[in-house]
Structure prediction request, 376 residues.
Amino acid sequence: MKEFAHTPVMLQEVLQYLKPEPGAMILDATVGWGGHAEAIAQRLQPGGLLVGIDRDPQAIAAARERLGVLGAGTTLINANFADLSVVLDTFARPLDGALFDLGVSSPQLDDPERGFSYRADAPLDMRMDPHESVSAYHLVNGLSEAELESIIRRFGEERWAKRIAAFIVRRRQTHGLIHTTGELVDVICAAVPVQGRSRGGMHPARRTFQALRIAVNNELGSLEAALREVVPYLRPGGRLVVISFHSLEDRIAKNVLREFARDCICPPEWHACQCGGGRALVRSLTPHPVRPSDEELAVNPRARSAKMRVVERCAEGQRGRDAGGETLRLHGSGGDVDVPSLADTLARWEPGAAPRSARGRPRGGPLGPTPGSVVL
Ligand SMILES: C[S@@+](CC[C@H](N)C(=O)[O-])C[C@H]1O[C@@H](n2cnc3c(N)ncnc32)[C@H](O)[C@@H]1O
Prediction:
């Protein structure tokens, strides 16, 4: 197995908020190479259980090697966290805590063969789960100019999205398909005017790579689905910690958790409360997101954009029990979670858009199975 290091972000803060104790059960929904998981799992013994999920089989294999010494105290599962009710329904007990440490890990970024990095020349891939059928190659070569622009603008928040999309399509017409990250970086660098580049030294390809990665893995749709699913599994007093690395993830975490924290669940157009209030399922422990300390940033610059939000399950609120058609459920339902499709996600999480309910959305995978089948 390849050795690549990943330093867990805000580890002390995670432990402080999750408070892992002997006998408890904690979900690490993004177990990765097992950094947070190891520290948590050690504190759950004797008698506790760390359930770790990752959609990347390489991550699960690495975590298994690292956490194997803890034996029965850990269970590791190769799955998308959007399907976490399928996993959690197999345990007949509520969660004492859950952690989402989003994005990609250093080993994924640093392995040139995975195609996540604009710093290495590799096949265009970016799939966290290599069994998924759509890679960055399919998007870059199969989407129309308008679709590429839309993805790059919305998921990369890239002001040069229109030019980059036009340059990609022109390059396809003149030179054929784009096969590698290096070829794509050259096209992006040609598209972004030198005078328009960030003064902070951000690589001109960084935002476009982020956008493609988010789209390939339907990261925002999975996140929204998983956050809606996980809260009802927490026991009263149980805590959910979400660490995000860009504004799109943080916006979803903020808005979904805020929805769960609302006392009144009546539609905003109703002038008077009909639900009786007292419906909050969680309360926020972090009115403002927690940021890494200067000491941490000095040793781990990759933590620089991290933001942590924490909520605690309320003892009283039973929102979802009798709210007729509510999206929130007290128990998982064996995998019928609605994962918003890429098109839904684009529409719902456009910067500045008011959050809308995911209720009634059709179930959808990351993208259609073949290039050209993507309808935005
Ligand atoms: C930042 S890393 C986690 C690192 C980990 N906390 C540690 O300390 O080693 C994020 C991990 O989440 C995984 N991941 C991202 N989206 C996922 C999803 N929808 N379902 C399951 N795993 C996911 C990635 O494959 C990656 O391994």
Notes: The chain has two domains: 11-107+219-337, 133-216. The longest helix spans residues 161-175.
